[in-house]
Structures
1.
Amino acid sequence: GVFYNLNRLGVNCELVTEWVKDAVWEERNKTIEDQFYLTAKYYHKLWRVSQKVDIIITDSSILAGLFYGEPSQAFKDIVLEKWNEFDNTVYFLNRDDSFYTTTGRMQDLSAAKALDTRIKTCLDNLDVKYEEINTGSACEYIMRHLIGDEVKGKLK
């Protein structure tokens, strides 16, 4: 993926996975309901490496706390304040239904697609710019966008 290839090319980067995934694997269902806590934990994972690397690759966003339930305005404000501390580039990967698995997830495919729609609506409402790309070409596209055409022929 993107992280692997950036590392291979010597780019100073880190992969920060979404914190909620740990809670899902540990079956901490009550914890998963607390979006403030999840967002703060995820923010901390990003913050702790943000001054040490040039690029952070992530499979989610601290904005994710706004995609579930009906967040208060105060929560939205703090999440956006923390979001704006980073230089964010957002790619929305269009789902390839043939590869979906429920292992380690809270949603089946139908619920995941509904969440996709909710995420896009939320991003649009927040005026967050994002690019939609297909998963099959995502790695090369993102690599070229991040570090230029010198990646051509060097990806694995």
2.
Amino acid sequence: SAQGFSSKRASWAFMTSTIEPATEAICLLDDDPAVLKSITRLLACEGFAVRPFSEPKNFLAHIQEYHSVRLAILDVWMEGMNGLEIQAEVSNISAQTRVIIITADANPVTKNTALSAGAIAFFIKPFDDEEFLTAVRSAIPRRTPTSNEAGVPFS
């Protein structure tokens, strides 16, 4: 039984978030290194494992390999391929992957396109950290050690 093990596991998983299973990590795609760094740090501080990508092709290769990525956070304007095209690819490859779009582009057409294609949230940079984290938390139900200590199995 993993019951007595669960509270240790929670802190261990946080300490070693870099080796979380690929499917547990949030994938973040943005070609701006400063944005990648700040969002990765923000999510890591909340205990999320993050796999940052600066190249659309590397991100798509990752999704091809691990079909069950739970959440992808995508920038819209990047060299070579825009985030809305990538969002369409993601839904073809891995329909269950949830998508949050981040962009510096306040164009309502971009927002409507992303949301009608299934994005769960759309944020214009710079965005409010708390609103962003609320969207991330709603996309990824947390596996809290407290529910397991109460004898509720991990889902």
3.
Amino acid sequence: VVYTDVPKTFVALLKQRIRWNRGGWRNIINYRQLFSTHYGDFGVFVMPMAALSIFILFAVLAFGIYSIGLNGVGILFFYQYGFDSLLYGLSSVHFISAIILLLTIYWIILGMQEIEGEKVSPFYLAGYLIVFSFLLTVFWVAALWKEITLAKPSW
């Protein structure tokens, strides 16, 4: 079991996550030789998945911004033509995202079953997934900005 001291304010949380994200990314780059079968599951699964998840996050973010730029008037189209018009804009990215979301929920439920005496409301779980997904993007974008501008880590 692992415990941590949770930051008391959002700004403190933001600083902590930026530090962790920057450190994680630098470790992936500095220790890229660990992407190897010599290091077992860590080198074959953990390190590649960490790098891939960061790449996917920024790829999805870029795709989302690009899509909004192309289809910014899509919301007006929805109001004019109804719900069916939303289905025309679905792509494989949406279905893959839905599968990832469902697998995440399943993984969390499995983890919660392993913890005795802990009960979490499905509404809290849904809220956590929605809020944290946006916060995760904010943390990574802020960390990328700090890396690009060569800012010193702040505590």
4.
Amino acid sequence: RVPSGVSDLMPVGPFRKDADDCAAFLRDPRSTRVVAVTLPEDLPVTESLEIVRVVRDDLRLPLAPLVVNQLRPELFSDSLRARLKNLDATVESSDERVRSTFHAAHGRAVLEGEQALQIARLEALGLPLVRVPRLETPPEDVAGLGAIVNALATL
């Protein structure tokens, strides 16, 4: 907002020209694009939706694809996820391993459902999404960052 503020205050002169040049540079998608980065969770997505609105509508700056960081791989199909989420979180079994396994699967299904909901909210923006996978363990070396580098290479 600074370039337009300076332009409003200085109708002519070198400061006005600098402000106009700066505004043109920022609005030129060949030189500048705003990269919004979010997590697939409710609050970060809500904040990103607002940031994109302000950048697009108020500031009128070009946007790059939106980066969604730490995406978990889907372990369950949509139908299995729905069945797991709708089942009661407790299972009648005398075997603790069965109850623990079901509890973990139920929790993962809920998590995957929330992630899918947040991705749908972001897709409604009409921006391309860059999907960066979650690393379950820290990489041992630079080569371990391959999945992240490959995802970000599309920017």
